[in-house]
Fold this protein.
Amino acid sequence: MRAFARTGGFVAVGALAAAAAAGAQRPQQVVLPGPVPYPTDSPPLVGGGVLASAYIAPGLHIASTERVRVKVDGTGKPNAIHVRQQLTVKGKGDYQVAVSGPIEDVRRGPGSQSEPGFRADQVLWAGFSPGTKQLAADIALRVPPAVPYLPLRLHLTREDGGVTLTVTNATTTPVMSYEGVVKPTEIARLLDATRRSSLAGKRVKAAFATFLGTVHVPRRPLQIEAPLRVRGELDLPGREPVTFSRVLGDGQPLSFEVHAEGSGEPELDVSASPAPVVHLLRPPGASTWAAAIRRRPIPGAELLSRLIGARFRLVRADQYQTFLADPDADGHSRAVYEYKTVAAQGPQHVASPARGGGGGSDALVIVLVILGSLVVAGGGLVVWAHS
Amino acid sequence: MRRAILLLACVSLLATGCGESSRASGGKIVIAVDVPVTGSPYVAQTIRHGVALAANNLNSGGGIIVGTHTYRLAVKLYDNHLSARQAVEDTRRALDAGAVAIVTDGTGVDATWQLADRDHVPICITYDGGTGLADAAKRPNVFRIAPTNHGIAFRFAEYLIPKGLKVGLLHDDSAYGQEGAADIGRAFSGNPRSVAVRMTLPLGATDLSPQILRARRSGATALLVWGQPPTIAAVLTAARSIGWDVPVYTPPTGADPFIRQQLADHPGWVDGLTFAAGRLTAEVGTGPFQSFESQYESAYGVDKVGVKTSDGRPVIEPPELAMYAYDFTHVLVAALTRAGSLDAGKVLAALNEVTTQGANGDERGFNRHNHDGVVDDDVYFARFHDMTYAPVKDDPLSSTLPVIPQTP
């Protein structure tokens, strides 16, 4: 549904832009960003398999709460990713849903009233909700395909006398924006509505803006990010932990550094969650944008740029609320990402999902063939050298 | 002229060849059915019919495509006599016959699964819900499409405890009864006050009056009887003959025609008997199941219970067990298609990855962690009245289910 909305949204904007190019100075309604489409396909993560057919009884709603736990090594590089996903089913009726992703394994989570099924790259849930039902799963993900979609990059650098942690918002992405002549009063009203949604933690509602005349698409795409609330501490043995709490994005820097004095293995504990857009939507010198433009005129282009940027950021933040998909596309989703250092581990069990019973033996055969070839080639070289 | 005729003959031969399926015939794929033909004929017959109905439907559609070949399904019947030893012998013979899967009521699976696992041949249980019989981790080749004892036990606890009843937990000394007692014990372990008495009943005893009197004296206000059909019939006889109108609850064996046949002279004694079973219809309604039932009856006739309603209509049994066997056959075929070969290991792995639409409209399939194709949530409760049963109204799932017609 979201994919459809994504296509539909771009088509709508494109069609309107084309119409604008062809038309005169007539006012026209242009779709603003949000609540969908999302600017990129993932998150939520997608797996390799074909999803089992889904069914959610009419009137049933499923909310998703995710705790994404990322284990990082001494440099800040992820080496294990687990998600505890809790689905709350509300309503009476049947459900049969699948959650896709690069899934290595799944186990029943605490408090779950049902057992999750597991197929190649899928967690399956099927059953009957008598009114409300809690489903919880602990899901291990394959690291390489999941890492690019984590919202934070961490980098630990050791120096003489300490360690420096660099935390970077990794959700930045280009999006197509648009410009044109707009009515400042209308944009101010839309800014106020968007701000109310943002502060209430609600998904932005679909909205239109009136453009007078041509709608321009700037050559350079707009770079937006999901604002992230980042909290954590950096700890070195025998020292007081260095704590930090920042928002990355929302008009503020996209990375920061934390330095801790001392020696030994650093311990890191960082949590990040998508944050509302606050800074960019704060009206200057007034309690609302409507009041602000009455107090001091603000160019319509500036208001529009702010509105589009803020709405895209809210859409991006909403996107990161579902690292693994909520089977109910309209469901309420929340995600928190937790990063912790762990002692160096062996390679994660990243066995590709079995694609049939012969996968393992095929791999063994390939290895044996390669080894055999090397032996034969080596033997040949020896024979050749002595001939 | 001769050349022209020869050319035409060649062309027509080619055309004939092209008219046939482009896939080569691979011959037959054997599905073994190992059931208690002597011992529990109703169970055996309905399971066999379920597999055969699916096979016949698929064969009449041109067979099944596996890789580059088409195959026809052949069903081979074995009689395990309800004996584990015989089941082992049957399994050996089925493996020798090249069976790609063995469908069973569950008899002897504890002894047969390892034999079949050596050849990566799947076994599917379509009747026995015993805990541990299907275990994806320990028994990778054992699957089940039937309500599990575990699921039934916990659904009973969920259903009965809030009613504030003092439940007498009775079971017979058959393997089925003892396994069920263990599951019921676990399900009620968190609410010992709900249990008035626990008691083992001798299988085959026709007079259970002493045990039922003891249960009555214990203060039981309901009986949950986990046992074979004769035990349930004996409990009902003992309770009703002393005028004790205690509600009686049972696992799926409570729906076995045997009980109604035994109590045909006292149809009122069956009234109120409540049993748990897997639901026969999905949320999409009765359509899919009735379509399946219609096909089943066209092929094999109705399964008559052997009793009549008060207005003289004969009672028939909906083909529930047949539905499970039928569904497994379709899941197996989906796995064969996905595997693209008859390689047993590949077929076994594919069984964890495929889903088909079951005869009742529900999705059927297994996965890597769970080889039970009937989820616990699908257990519902039905109550008898006038020799036919209807879903109860005081359970959230059951109250949503329609009544399946049981008279022609």
